Amino acid sequence: MSRACKVCKIITEDPSCPICKGTDLSDDYSGLLVVVDPEGSQLAQKMGIKEAGRYALKIR
Asked: DSSP 3-state assignment of 46?
């Protein structure tokens, strides 16, 4: 089951976040943003994303 980190919004299968190492994950999220080039993406820059990956747009 994939879950999204409430801090950095990355979607992961792991029990903790691979970016911030936090465990505050939620399975209740919506929207999906796939970032391939964080430095070249305006949306990734607006969201503060620094690493490539799959991100949730809204987390409850």
From this structure: helix
Residue 22: CB atoms within 10 A of its CB come to 12
Q: How far apart are CA 27 and CA 8, in angstroms?
A: 14
Domains in the chain, number = 1
pLDDT digits (tens, 9 = 90+) for 23-32: 999 999 999 9
Residue 54 belongs to domain with CATH number: 2.20.28.90
- Residue 42's SS3 state is helix
Q: The tokens of 2 are what? A: 């994939």
Q: Do residues 54 and 33 make contact, with C-beta atoms less than 8 angstroms apart? A: yes
Residue 1 to residue 45: CA distance in whole angstroms: 27
Structural domain span for residue 9: 3-59
